[in-house]
Amino acid sequence: MIVVDRVSKFYGRNAAVRDLDFRIEEGECVGFLGLNGAGKSTTLRLLSCLLLPTSGRVTIRGFDVEEQPHEIRKLIGYLPDEPPLYPEMRVEEFLRFAGKLRRMSAEQLQLRLPKVMAQTGLEAVRDQTIGTLSHGYQQRVGIAQAIVHEPALLILDEPIQGLDPVQIVEMRALIRSLRGEHTILLSSHILSEIEQTCDRILMLHDGRIVAQGTEDELVHGMGEGPAGYREALTAHWVELEVRGDEEALRGALALEGVEIVELTRGSSDVLRVKVKSVSEARELLATQIVNAGLGLRGLRRTSSALEDVFVRLSQGERPDEAPEKDMLEDKLEGKEVRA
User: Fold this and answer.
1) N or C: which terminus of the chain carries fewer CB neighbours within 10 A?
2) φ and ψ at 238, to 5 degrees?
3) CA 198 to CA 32: how far, in whole Å?
4) Residues 274-306: pLDDT tens digits?
5) Where does CATH 3.30.70.100 sit in the chain?
């Protein structure tokens, strides 16, 4: 449905996004994951025809964003990071207004609005003024205006931003309920929301896609990513607590395919060590430690989980390197719109 081919967007000399290259199929729910300033909103604005690329090409259902933007806009429902609402209007009144802007007839709106308000949980507040609603309900109104015309493509930019925990759960359920009816693009800097909502994930850092794939593919190193990515994700990670001499412990763990990543001394003579191996090695590690006359206090398997990969890739590191950088400063992400 969507083909993005080597797309970049510059503001002067500053690149908001650079060399984006990906495809999205009909019916997918795809999450754009990245820190603030990573380029998520710019990417969604490019797909929404609110911005034009500096270079490269974007097509949606065969239509080109530069040559046929009006055809593409007919296909799209868009919720920006701040819902485009009129606080003085009532909910149903506003949704009728939004539908008319989409060239829907009065008869079409009469049939469509009850379903939209039921889907978004707005039936009880249909006659309330939007400005009196909670932030959670205003987000619901924002989604309702985005789906009122039954778009093929639904674009949601940070839809859970500013919601409380209960509202987040409700919004997550709402987005899930829309899957199957629309192709959905969702941006967030909150990993858990992308994990629980989307079929596939595109990780962005500094305006570039640094990894993409399903959650399982990313965690098991089968997705696309930078050098060192697969090796780090397919490694086996173990944390040990060992009583005894550090030199003796290092000698016991000097095995082929085993690497001590971190070793610290805790209380008394207990050593805490994090080990990476190319294959399952817990039994071997325990045997080596006991045979060396050391006391094994604890052994726990860990993993280079998606959260760890996200943090390291977002810091611009190879995921098999220890994170040493401070968190990134926000990069320029443009707000202007080209007609």
Assistant:
1) C
2) -135, 135
3) 9
4) 898 888 888 999 999 999 999 999 998 875 455
5) 236-302
